[in-house]
User: What shape does this take?
Amino acid sequence: MFQKRTLFERLKNPEGTTARTLEEDTNAQVRSILRNLARILNARVGQAPAQMDFGIPSPSEIAQGYPESLTTMQKTIRKSIERYEPRLKDVQVLQIESDDIRLAVRFQVSARLATSKEGRHVSFDTLMDPSGHVNLNA
Assistant: This one.
């Protein structure tokens, strides 16, 4: 069975903050997934020498092929999540129109928790600002 915390979270704080339990704390798991997705989506392809496909393309690549590049970015985000976040399954990424912030790109990520007994559905909103930084909200 998958752990509630990532390996790095367990190494950083091996004792944990709570006692072990057989109950599933999906809220803590979702927070951990959000942190991992932030790492994945804020990394750029080619920055991680050990895993050259880790991350997503830079915003300049989106701008060059706009608007066709948005479809490519959706697929890239979905594939990155499927590969580097095994606690999520049935991942879908949809582009959301955003008029409130100029030059920002929004995507909604929806998936099911692979570790949840009932397959709990989760959804995250992502906002990529003009500098390329991705913010996530549950």
